[in-house]
């Protein structure tokens, strides 16, 4: 049984909830809860990365999925991804447009010289900023030439030990279950054992961790007024003590048994003091803002157990709360409903090649699934052979997104459904806080403060006032000229409201745009007005509270005790040996580095990622030509420019024998990639060349309109073009920074600002050793990520196919396939492939 579409799931258990409601007392705000959920729809994001630890100069490859109520979001259409250091400084940021399945591919280039240290990657929509606890955040670590190995073993003094009575409180005279979690100074779980004594020194319990620092124990009959202390000891004879929560004199305790497949049992205990206050207790269970169980127990008459049917409930966290007759929350417990079965791909190893630089061909099928957004990653399994541990699409959407605090290896809890794993998951839920809402705020109608709107597209907004005055202009307009990096121009006009406000919606452009604007007062054309533009969120983002929660630098690199330590140390050594100040000292001889060619300097200034490859041309060396095509023909051997210089057919001679294009002058769209699988759709000229303006794919006629004086750099990619999805070559034009293409005379009276646009997700580049067998034989291929496709597509027969080449290091591979379809079915598969 696969996961049902969200609409069917909710209908099934809402009907069930209505059937089991008991009318003994007033309903505890069922309508309030559902109104709160309707007014505060909660989007969730999961961000996959190709790995967790990086080196300066590398690319972080990412794929994001955004969901709402278990299906791809229909609410927001813009996703923000940022990278934040330990001080809260935003060091990288991009904005992506979500596709129809709520997903987006993303990437960050780590600059050479980025400081070593821990960083957080955060992914969210603007709407999610109203609920900052739901922002997806994961810690990564970056190694650079400045790295110093600080590996240390945590001592007893840095051990953190926290205790959580089940249901919330220990109540005098009632046997109480107490869960606990232990972690070291770095925030990682540790194993320990100890004992609990009361304030008279009497032992009352012993405890020991069971999994990842979690465990539990019972205190038979806690007493009000007594204090309870946990004691752990070190191997040196040192001890450390921790106080348990205070015992309440009166109240209700809650214990949940969730080891039955068809139902779980909620068991209540009542203290003897003021027990009449707790004669009746209402037990309410809810999931995602929908009440799924609601009954009243007459505790005075011995009703202390509530069975909750599970079979019709969807997968995820169930919140169970006990209320008194006045609807005051008394006890609460989170449990997990495991009614899920992820769609598992059927993987076929068509060609499994474990030799250095050998080619592998794999394929898989997804049965009974609708249109979907699926990613495939293959990494070096020799270095990282562990599976089902790291965060994945299952653990993120069904577990960690609803819990507070760092959770170590959350993927473990979805590796299987055996009794040990479910027990460990139950311990986890007893020790991590609930982040979705607070019952007390809902019962008192404390609505969430909504500061951020839902974004369906980029927009321009602001107000217009009289010059040097706060008085708004009520009858007027603002005119806009928006020119993108791809040379597209949008003219827009916004009328003012009676509050002097204006809005231009559905403004979409890639990378960056120059926005020129001018305000006008309709009543007095000569009256000077001031236009106050609201800054876009992406442009104003400089600081963040979503800082890294832990440091992943926990490997003893120096002693090289495992493959990962060897891999880290080897790469760090390479970085540090290349980090010199411009001189190489060879005994008594000093060799000064040669001057950097101007083309290389221009390349470093303008190009990024795979666009750094290929030949660079400085147009200043060809000032005798006034046309971009004349410059290209004169500067690049092996390129052919035929016909009219204002609309030529451009091709590379080396591809003349490949009769794959109609050379009639018309343009076509092709699907291309470096590995033969479905890739990005690019506009390609009839001659086979793909053109880019400032790294944005454009038709050739846009290039023809450029003034040679506005061109800063020309890049030519021949075989390297496969890295950006242009196997028959690419030409990239960079305009001078600050230049406005096709400038109009009417621009002069406009105020100009720069606005960030949608980032372009790049194609993952990997070497093709079959096409280029001599490629870099003198350099060891040490790639960790061997294949990355954030949006793989099936062939016509429904089969997904992909291929990749080994590096020089691995002897086995780690394969991860995950995604979501239009109905919310989750796809997940992890596999280590060995010889």
Mean pLDDT: 85
Amount of helix: 10-25%
- Helices, by number, come to 10
Give unreliable regions as ranges. 3-26, 579-595, 656-680, 739-748
Report the β-strand fraction as a percent range: 35-45%
Strand order of the largest sheet: 2-9-8-5-6
- Large-scale geometry: globular
Q: From the structure provided, what is the oligomeric state, counting identical versus distinct chains?
A: single chain
Describe the structure.
The chain has 835 residues and is mainly beta. The strands form 15 sheets. The chain has a five-stranded mixed sheet with strand order 2-9-8-5-6. Strands 37-44-45-42-43 form a five-stranded mixed sheet, sandwiched between helices. Strands 1, 3, 4 and 7 form a four-stranded antiparallel sheet that branches. A hairpin with a 7-residue loop joins strand 40 (668-672) and strand 41. The two termini are 33 Å apart. 39% of the residues are buried.
Give a brief rundown of this model:
By secondary structure, this protein is mainly β. A 5-stranded mixed beta sheet has the order 2-9-8-5-6. Strands 37-44-45-42-43 form a 5-stranded mixed beta sheet, with helices on both faces. Strands 1, 3, 4 and 7 form a 4-stranded antiparallel beta sheet that branches.
Jot down its keywords.
835 residues; mainly beta; five-stranded mixed beta sheet; globular
